[in-house]
Amino acid sequence: MYMKVHIIAPYESMLPIIKACLPLYPDMEIGYSVGDLEKGVELAKLEEKNGADAIISRGGTAKLIKKSVQIPVIDMHLSGYDMIRSLTLASELKDKTAIVGFSNITSGAQSIIDLLELPLQVYTVRESEEVAPLILTLKNEGYKQIVGDVITINATISYGMKGFLIQSGRESILRAVNDAKQMISFLHYKNDMNGMLERLLVKEVQNIVIFNEENQVVYERLTDFDANPFNAVQYQSLNTELTENKQVLHAHFSLDGKSVDVEGFWHDGLKASYRMYILTASSVKRLDLKGVKSKAASFPEPIAMDAAFVNTVASLYKNHEIIHLKGSRGTGKEFLVNYIHNELANNGMLCTIDFEEFKESALKELLLDNIRTVFLKNIDCIKEFAPLNEFLYTCCKNGVSIFIGSNEQISEAIAASLEINTIHLPDLSHRKEDIEKLTKFFLSHYHQTYGTTAMNIKSEALALLEDYSYPNNIDDLKRFIKQIALNEKEYVIQKETIEKVLEDDGLSTDILVSQKATLKQMEKYIIQRTLKEEDYNQTKTAERLGINRATLWRKLKE
Questions:
Q1: Do 31 and 176 sit in the same domain of this protein?
Q2: How many Å from the N-terminal Cα to the C-terminal Cα in the chain?
Q3: Which residues form the Sigma-54 factor interaction domain (predicted)?
Q4: Region 40-50: what's the mean pLDDT?
């Protein structure tokens, strides 16, 4: 039976696994795309119009799609293998961790946790509305990491915690496709809104978004916006607050050069309840914001620096003193800024200004609404210090904490009347204890981003990593771990994989230099690398190295 199926993945890193499964179904037309929650619903509706016989998705996205289309929707259930892989990775990061989700996730998770004796706690919810309040409670109890599905992860990130997504593996995808082949039938379609509501609203309100009890957008009209100005996480936060209060909600946002006022209402209908948001937009005077990035709290890379060192920085931050982080490239300045901000900023925003792209004359145009931390980069590009000093004084006056990152001493012309505290960040070569923690974090990151296999690293492989120095510190380590993760086929990184990556990519001379290598070994590395780059032409190699062919021949024979 010919079948046209479309898979809607709730996250990007599922796509490589889907592509690998396609050759197993030559008689089926299987398409795929990425879309979570409301975006997934939009994609499903489009594919229904294009003739799809069934939709495959996962978790909350599948639940929403089932209520929005008339074709079968197959929920890609998690397998025990998926749970073991994800829970093992999450437990490796050593943070206080909880699993939050519906019973289809938590029941299996509890069995695995008990069997493997993992240091994880399980919390079960019945409705999606319970997720955000529970996450906030867990944050207050000291949890740093939450494991769950996409709905859980979105809520977790909105509260500034680390979210670890439980990903679906090959087995789960194959099972879902096989189920789709047997379950082609139409589902009953139900629509909570009708044409009468639209006729009433169009005359009175220009910009309105309405959610049902399942946090699904059932009506949207946005005359003053090219697209919806808020993302799912922002709406989820608004929905949570309005659900708890069940009163009129007022909020203000500064988004993409516009000031947006939000008025929210809770409405109890005869059969259901709805949350309605009326948006009012007005222009805000802005200059070119290239080089400026603002973000809410998010879980940063791991910090393994000395506790006393971190506490010193935290004390300066609490007193809103200007902190100058001085260190070589890649020593973790931005890591430290993210960590301190997430720990102490009370859900405020972090604004990063890169003066390599941003003009200091535009500082006075920046809005500091809800900004708690400012991180200044590449201040050596500044030509006029007066606008910067005025900006620093304004930040200090308004309780905004300032970090300045640089590789060298900053100019005395910066905030001469303000005390600037310089903190020196040591190179990674002086912080060997960080390498294991950073390696496991990067492995987790690449597993989530690219779906890589490796979950841990063997002790002898770790020793090999620790045996090298990294000229660009954490930046080099991160790039190196990426290559290792992409090339490792096992669940634990082997020493041989690292050696192969070093040999294939020439990293032993370009990025990593062994601290234990002799002068003769380093000389041989350089000769072999140059010979390879010159396509093994000995004449050109000798010319590049500044020696004659006879000397090159002798050294190759040694």
A1: yes
A2: 68
A3: 405-486
A4: 93
- The pLDDT value recorded for residue 187 is 35
Question: Are residues 319 and 201 both part of a single domain?
Answer: no
| 36, HSE (Cβ side, Cα atoms, 13 Å) | 15
According to the 3-state scheme, what is the secondary structure of 225-288? Answer: CCCCCCCHHHHHHHHHHHHHHCCCEEEEEEECCEEEEEEEEEEECCCCEEEEEEEEEEECCCCC
Check residue 256 and give its pLDDT: 63
373 in any annotated domain: yes
Query: Which amino acid, one-letter code, is at 152?
Result: T
pLDDT digit string (tens) for 424-461?
988 888 888 888 888 988 888 888 888 888 889 999 99
Distance CA(264)–CA(250), nearest Å, equals 6
pLDDT level of residue 48 (50, 70, 90 thresholds):
very high
Asked if residue 296 and residue 419 are part of one domain, the reply reads yes
200 assigned to some structural domain: yes
β strands within 383-451, DSSP E: 401-406, 420-424
Tokens of 108: 């299996």
Residue-wise pLDDT for 262-277, tens only, equals: 888 888 776 678 888 8
- pLDDT tens for 77-102 read 877 788 888 788 777 767 788 899 88
Cα 477 from Cα 465, distance rounded (Å): 9
CB 432 within 8 A of CB 469: no
Task: Give the Cβ contact number of residue 189 at 10 Å.
Answer: 11
pTM exceeds 0.85, yes or no: no
Query: Could you say which of 234, 262, 283 is where a domain stops?
Result: 283
What total of structural domains would you count in the chain?
Answer: 5
Which amino acid is it at 385? F
- The boundaries of the domain holding residue 207 are 195-283
Q: What CATH number should be reported for the domain holding residue 224? A: 3.30.450.20
> Helix 459-466 crosses helix 495-505 at what angle (to 10 degrees)?
40
**SS3 readout for 123-175:** EECCCHHHHHHHHHHHHHCCCCEEEECHHHHHHHHHCCCEEEECCCCHHHHHH
The encoded tokens of residue 334 equal: 């931005």
Q: What is the pLDDT of residues 477-491, one digit of tens each?
A: 888 899 999 998 888
